[in-house]
Design a protein that fits this description.
alpha+beta; 8-stranded antiparallel sheet; 3-stranded antiparallel sheet; 18 strands; 20% helix
């Protein structure tokens, strides 16, 4: 099914479907660049349309953390509290990050430190639907210390599937781990593939050689550079895109490092997702 989606949605003939999607979901194309639907060569090109940064401004306060994706969002202070939404299922952070065997993308000298730091820590689940903006951003600034590509199936990651106990977050996935400094520590951003999401691209608009922020409202597509270990990415920087459809971003934080927005936390406690815009505040760092 995923291969079929890829062939269908990247074909030039799929361009005729764009107007129907815009009408069906009442999408404000003025929020995106290019804003003209005819500028996209295929339905997939439209799926990964770029956001107009002025329509999704960054918070001024530097200690705020932001939503990594425009998605239905849940936040939990630890894995145990997330089990209510998962209907009792336990999500293994170790397995999500590739574990001791599959985590070869984490350098050996920090692998144990990273896995221990994030174990039973805080979690943000951002579920994208096909109509959503499909690029994802760094929720905090930091230096990339590891990048992993982990194999897995392509199950659906709908709300029902995610709560089924079938380990759908262990689908094929890409993992980016940031060192966000002493106040925050390590942060893992996991882009989970799904049915009809067979290509998760890790890249960012070219900014400078030392710092990546990539904010632009230009109608011209920016030059993209592949994410690499050692890059510093600013909070809000685009760091990847999900092709073909909707999926999920799972963000892991160390225990007690974030004070989540109280309303968002309460809604999550009752298993209620909240649609959050990318770059919107979802909490603030507590520090040590």
């Amino acid at each position: 099914a995923t291969e079929t989606c890829g062939l269908q949605f990247t074909a030039s003939s799929s361009k005729s479907m764009i107007a129907d999607w815009i009408d069906m979901y009442d999408i404000a194309m003025s929020d995106f660049v290019p804003s003209d639907p005819s500028a996209y060569d295929s339905l997939d090109a439209w799926f990964v349309r770029r956001i107009r940064s002025l329509r999704r401004p960054q918070p001024v306060e530097p200690t705020f953390i932001t939503a990594p994706a425009e998605a239905r969002t849940l936040v939990f202070d630890n894995e145990y509290k997330a089990r209510g939404w998962f209907k009792g299922y336990r999500l293994s952070y170790n397995n999500l990050l590739g574990g001791d065997d599959g985590g070869s993308g984490i350098p050996a000298h920090i692998r144990g430190e990273v896995l221990t730091f994030l174990q039973r820590g805080q979690i943000v689940i951002s579920r994208l639907a096909p109509q959503d903006y499909h690029r994802f951003h760094a929720p905090v600034g930091g230096t990339i210390v590891a990048i992993q590509s982990l194999e897995g199936p392509y199950f659906s990651v709908s709300a029902d599937a995610a709560r089924s106990g079938n380990d759908v977050f262990l689908n094929q996935r890409k993992v980016v781990i940031l060192d966000a400094g002493a106040r925050v520590g390590y942060v893992a951003i996991v882009a989970v593939g799904a049915t009809c999401v067979g290509n998760v691209q890790l890249s960012t608009p070219l900014a400078s050689s030392s710092s990546i922020s990539g904010e632009s409202d230009s109608e011209t597509a920016p030059e993209l550079v592949q994410l690499e270990v050692g890059m510093y990415v600013e909070r809000g920087a685009e760091i990847g895109a999900m092709h073909f459809g909707g999926s999920t971003i799972v963000t892991l934080w160390g225990q007690g490092r974030v004070e989540f927005d109280s309303i968002l936390l309460q809604r999550s406690r009752y298993a209620v997702e909240t649609h959050i815009r990318v770059n919107a505040k979802i909490g603030a760092t507590r520090g040590e």
